[in-house]
Amino acid sequence: xxxxxxxxxxxxxxxxxWNQRWQAGRTGFHMxxxxxxxxxxxxxxxxxxxxxxxxxxxxxKSLDLKWIAEQGHRAVGVxxxxxxxxxxxxxxxxxxxxxxxxxIPDGIVHTSKDGKIKLFQCDFYLFTEMHAGKFDxxxxxxxxxxxNPSDRTRYVDKMTSLLKPDGSYLLNSLNFNxxxxxxxxxxxxxxxxxxxxxxxxxxxxxxxxxxxxxxRKGRLxxxxxEQVILLTLK
Length: 234
Fold this sequence. Notes:
alpha/beta; globular
């Protein structure tokens, strides 16, 4: 997985760089509560069904993982940082086991004792449907806006391959002026999302939330909006 550095837009953030950010505590993107957008829209995505397979790309130690499992579903995350994963299980006081993923170099899957949560420690682009099946729901909370913009087509191809034909993809993106600061995050407003996904997805705009005043980086921007977008395969 590669992303432009927050310090130099011409450099590349590697898996090791992300590990260093976790080690140094540079994790301002982590939320200390379950995401309010997920809470608001999840029941519509589930539509009364149970035991769904839910994917959280670049999940860190998100509390959303535990909450989804508590609703009776299976939460699968991909995260390159071992520290993020072990911190999740430790902070949530959950027992887990760790086993190698044979066809991913240095890949490890960490599984909760009840089997409801699986966190794959690996390069995101090496993760495939062979490892955890296809997904009923994808919850993309700021994953698209964290990657190198030049990798977005590759990212969309990967996500498309992981979603079931009748699945739903809930995307939490950001719209702000690009010259506000050096990312990540990188802006991906609705029109960009439409261009990225239009070949395979129906793109539905759900809501926009003004977060300029409440967001640390948003204070540097002329404007900053969270945009909530629903994607369904054509």
